[in-house]
Amino acid sequence: MSALLRRYGDRPASVRVLCDAHLRFEVDGEAANEVRKHLGWRVYATNQPAEELNLQKAVLAYRDEYVIERCFGRLKGKPLSLKPMYLQDDDRATGLIRLLTIGLLVLSLLEFTVRRQLAEEGKELKGLYAGNPKRSTARPTTEAILGVFPGDLPDHDHHRREN
Question: Angle 9-10-16 (CA atoms, 0-180°, nearest 5)?
């Protein structure tokens, strides 16, 4: 099917061809099952003897390891929001990045301190997850901890003294 488009402004008259496309597909069950077999598998390697570090301990050690990429995600994500910036002065850009890096260190230190204290006391925190107040964790994120506090920073304009 085609449609004639009339001339409009600087655009010349033209013909637009309209067509329908139909797509039919079928899931290859055998291939899908083969892919499912490999989902979720990870390979762990260590130079520790099996007597000192069995598979279960190795997996737990891996899950608890410090992951630097998480910090970069925080730096680029909502807590600190380092986004492309258009600053004329390189010193200002450097200063902003250094300031955000200090913020990142504060977030990481708060999280580390809370997690270590919870581990030492054998306790967990509840009420950090919206919609699931009974859920508890011994490894809360700083964002979850700070999310418990209501609202943003208070508006201090109403505290000003009048002269």
Answer: 90
